[in-house]
Design a protein that fits this description.
The protein has 602 residues and is of the alpha+beta class. The chain is built from 21 helices and 21 strands. Bound molecules: 6-diazenyl-5-OXO-L-norleucine.
């Protein structure tokens, strides 16, 4: 297997920044002094769960303050945004992590990522005892990491024995009724939370879990309700690096959180989780090598969230009309000519990418503007990777607007978007399996509104069948004598894929369709009513049948066997020439339509 240039890049970065020896290992929690200052790991986990690692990525260390945004998320899940905002603010303190930064009036901690806010968040975690709270926190963190995590009891002990400042903070919070009972259980749970043993790899996966909307991309397990991910990432962006948060966001544009164990977890929302482990800390308590690595990654890989080059990809991949695409429903030349002439009345939009406000706006604008001249809209969602509530609401909204004008908007191949659109109020009948059926429905609507087709008897005389057009009465009599009659009930299979192809079929009554099975289910290739012929391609090249033909109603066919067809060479060559001419005309029509459709793909 080839070596990944991305792995090469990370190895080079690790080698380059491994020489950075500024900073000191934390020692105010004595046990932390045991850390080897040269430990150094860089890890990137992608939103779909692929992990790049270089250096000491499996060296255990304690999570410390990187734990704080995760506990904040747990408190939000357990109490809701409003209740938590009453207890903990979201303003950067501009102070050190262990400053007693409380709101002058309310006494509430300014944000959940300074110790005061983190202790308050711990007090909100369900459970009266330290054990209950810690169990809930461990269970939550383990979902982020995708493996069961444990507490480093030596570090916990060391912190609990020396955590006097945090205890003071705890009692201050009690004093302001931010914590409404004895803070001891919350304090001990906080110390345990900070002492959870992780690795750099765990941290990257935790970051990727946040990047992936709260779902661990490796285990698929949800660690945080999607609606709170933005809350957690917001405070990480503004407060995650304490009194260096402004400089951090300016240089990296990534929400992040550091810890005195030497870890930094950064997140590129929707894309990446980044983790760096190096115990050498600067004056703010942030890993020196961690800062340098993340700034280099942002600069080298264009990760900055506010980088305008990451513009929304317009969702419209293809916009076309009935002039270029058509259903597989075979229609009379007159009907096809009419549909071609009013082709602009039917619009087909194929969307792709992630549907959010920025990408759906051009779609809504197009549908709104096109509503002047078009009556029928098909929006294909097959290539859409995701849709958010806003985009679903606006699609539902424009469908309602159009229907109030008597215009129709259908969705095809909705896949994962279906439930979002249903939740946004789109009716079930607005969904069609694929463009073919939706186009046929649209064509029928447009024909019904403006095309008066000559009344068609249920039975089509041979003279009016496509294959026999232009034959003389005498020739028709010869054909009539040599054709076999076959009848089929509705739903009955007329031709199965793989069968030998020794018959050519002419439909004189009813309707039928040609279909193949695909991984997405049945795909319709052709549909036709009486007067049409079918099975000619395999009949002509003598290959096995490549598709199934099913009766859509009671069907009567006249069948030309290979034997009768071969007899024509000697008995009626003029008829054979006429038949082959008609077949060629039909195949030309198919080819012309296919190239029109291919051209519209460009
Ligand atoms: O409360 C403390 O002081 C530690 N358990 C956590 C502090 C920390 O990680 C600050 N981060 N840079």
């Amino acid at each position: 297997m080839a070596h990944s240039p991305i792995q090469h890049y990370l190895q080079a970065l690790h080698a380059r920044l491994g020489h950075l020896n500024a900073g000191e290992v934390a020692d105010y929690i004595p046990e932390l002094k045991q850390a080897n200052p040269n430990w150094f790991g860089i890890c990137i986990a992608t939103q779909d769960g692929y992990v790049y690692e270089v250096g000491d990525c499996n060296q255990p260390f304690t999570i410390q303050s990187v734990s704080k945004p995760l506990t904040y998320g747990l408190a939000l899940e357990q109490h809701g945004e409003a209740a938590v905002l009453k207890k903990i603010g979201v303003e950067p303190s501009g102070d050190a992590f262990n400053a007693i930064s409380l709101h002058p009036q309310s006494g509430t901690p300014l944000n959940p990522l300074i110790n005061a806010g983190a202790i308050a968040a711990c007090s909100l975690v369900a459970g009266d005892s330290m054990e209950d709270k810690t169990a809930a926190i461990l269970e939550s963190f383990s979902r982020y990491a995708g493996r069961p995590l444990e507490i480093d009891h030596k570090v916990y002990q060391s912190e609990s024995e020396t955590g006097h400042r945090n205890r003071a903070i705890g009692w201050m919070l009690r004093n302001f009724s931010v914590i409404e009972n004895d803070p001891t259980a919350s304090l001990e749970a906080y110390f345990q939370q900070c002492s959870i043993r992780i690795t750099c790899r765990d941290l990257a996966i935790m970051g990727a879990t946040l990047a992936n909307g709260g779902v661990n991309p490796i285990t698929g397990q949800r660690a945080l309700a999607e609606k709170y991910v933005a809350n957690v990432l917001s405070v990480m962006a503004t407060c995650g690096m304490y009194d260096a948060s402004g400089d951090w966001l300016y240089r990296t544009g990534l929400p992040a959180k550091s810890g005195v164990g030497g870890g930094i977890m950064a997140v590129q929302p929707g894309r990446l989780g980044i983790a760096v482990f190096s115990p050498r800390l600067d004056a703010q308590g942030n890993s020196v090598r961690g800062l340098a690595v993340c700034q280099a990654l942002t600069a080298d890989l264009d990760l900055h969230m506010f980088d305008a080059s990451q513009r929304a990809i317009p969702a419209i991949r293809r916009a076309t009309t009935r002039r270029s695409v058509k259903s597989n429903q075979r229609r009379t030349q007159a009907a096809n000519d009419y549909l071609l002439s009013v082709g602009k009345k039917l619009r087909l939009l194929q969307l792709h990418g992630a549907l959010t406000f920025a990408s759906i706006e051009p779609v809504i604008r197009t549908l709104t503007q096109d509503s002047e001249n078009a009556d029928f809209f098909i929006v294909n969602l097959k290539l859409v990777q995701g849709i958010d509530r806003t985009a679903a609401d606006f699609l539902a909204g424009i469908r309602t607007e159009l229907s109030e004008l008597g215009k129709i908007l259908l969705f095809t191949e909705a896949g994962a978007c279906w439930q979002h659109l249903i939740d946004a109020g789109v009716a079930r009948e607005a969904f069609f399996a694929d463009d073919d059926f939706a186009l046929e429905y649209g064509e029928n609507q447009i024909l019904g509104a403006g095309f008066s087709s000559p009344a068609k008897s249920s039975h089509t005389p041979l003279a009016e069948c496509d294959l026999f057009l232009g034959l003389s009465t005498q020739e028709l009599a010869w054909v009539d004598q040599h054709l076999v009659v076959r009848s089929f009930t509705k739903g009955q299979t007329i031709i199965s894929a793989g069968q030998a192809s020794n018959e050519l079929f002419v439909l004189t009554q009813g309707a039928a369709m040609v279909s193949i099975s695909t991984q997405d289910g049945m795909a319709r290739l052709d549909a036709f009513s009486s007067g049409a012929s079918f099975g000619e391609v395999a009949f002509l090249d003598r290959s096995p049948r490549s598709a199934n033909v099913t009766a859509l109603s009671p069907v009567v066919c006249r069948v030309l066997t290979r034997e009768a067809f071969d007899q024509l060479d000697t008995q009626a060559p003029a008829i054979k020439i006429r038949l082959l001419g008609n077949l060629a005309a039909r195949l030309t029509t198919i080819l012309r339509q296919t190239s029109r459709e291919l051209a519209s793909l460009k």
